[in-house]
Amino acid sequence: MVHTEPVAADDTAPDSSTPSPAPDAGARMPRWLPRAMVAALALFACFQLAAWAFHQLIGLLLNILIAFFLALAIEPAVARMAARGMRRGLATGLVFLGVTVVAAGFFTLLGSMLADQIITMVENFPSYLDSVIRWINRTFRTHLSRVEVQESVLHSDWLQKYLKSSAGGVLDVSATVLGGLFQLLTVLLFSFYFAADGPRLRRALCSVLPPRRQAEVLRAWEIAVTKTGGYLYSRALMALISGVAHYVLLEVLGVPYAPALAIWVGLVSQFIPTIGTYLAGALPMLLAFTVNPWYAVWVLGFVVVYQQFENYVLQPRITARTVDIHPAVAFGSVVAGTALLGAVGALIAIPATATLQGFLGAYVKRYDVTDDPRVQEGPA
């Protein structure tokens, strides 16, 4: 019989009677993590809500921005009338009344001229068409007639499709017109309040700022008023001069629709910087070409010469104390404003740039430049 000794129990075996070690304190979720997650979700929700609200109110914000610059433009006239003892509300109303009367008269005159020119064009359209058909027959050896051309145009598929789409878009056009009138009313209302309550608005803004910041804000506001008003007044004056000069030329050459073309050239050439004169001169050149091809050359030469006269003689004298901006800076500001805000950005780009330039010029310290040939404009 084989005797076996009992095997000793392994000391390394786990004992069920001993308690398991407590879990590591680092494995627990920190107490601040749930609150941080809730705060992050709340901030994200607030950001989404703010982005949605901004997207819905972008039209109103743009109208307020236009109204603010319009109020800055009429601020000098309102302040001058208020300094003589007139109430700001009454002074603002008189300024708006004068602007409305001038604008209504301008558009009435322009509309009547355009209506007369359109009636004349419609009455003379058969003769224009006959001359074009004769030129085509003589040049290309064809045998076209006005009756054939009219019949082919009236029975064409594209004309019928165009008439159907135009009839279906009448409601859209009406809605667009009503929306434009509402936006115009909104701009006028806000600009009236901004101009009439200008001192109260500045006082409310300065009340939340320390005294040093108040002086800087008031100085910036004054610069904005000066630059914006100066820009509009100087551009209106140069538009008048440009329109009169081009009207005299077109009238001498016998180009049709000279008054309407002169108004077109004056407005487009001044409120579209740098290239506005050439864009505005394209339409008079086209109509002058229909009268005589050499007349188009005369119009082109006059446009080029007048642009140089305006850049180097007229504009420096008029804008010396208002908005002296380099043409490249003006053109770049318009392009940037159009890319950011569309037509509104193009409208307010130059006064905003002039305001920023004036503000920086008032606070940026400049030094005398050393006498170095590399910074001289002329020969060394």
Automatic annotation (TrEMBL):
Pfam families the UniProt entry points to: AI-2E_transport
Record keywords: Cell membrane, Membrane, Transmembrane, Transmembrane helix, Transport
Location within or outside the cell: Cell membrane
Entry's Gene Ontology cellular component terms: plasma membrane
Membrane-spanning segments: 36-54, 60-78, 90-115, 173-195, 236-255, 286-309, 329-350
GO biological process: transmembrane transport
Low complexity composition bias: residue spans: 9-25
Disordered: annotated segments: 1-26
Membrane topology: Multi-pass membrane protein
Entry similarity comment: Belongs to the autoinducer-2 exporter (AI-2E) (TC 2.A.86) family.
Record-given protein name: AI-2E family transporter
The organism of origin for this protein: Streptomyces albireticuli
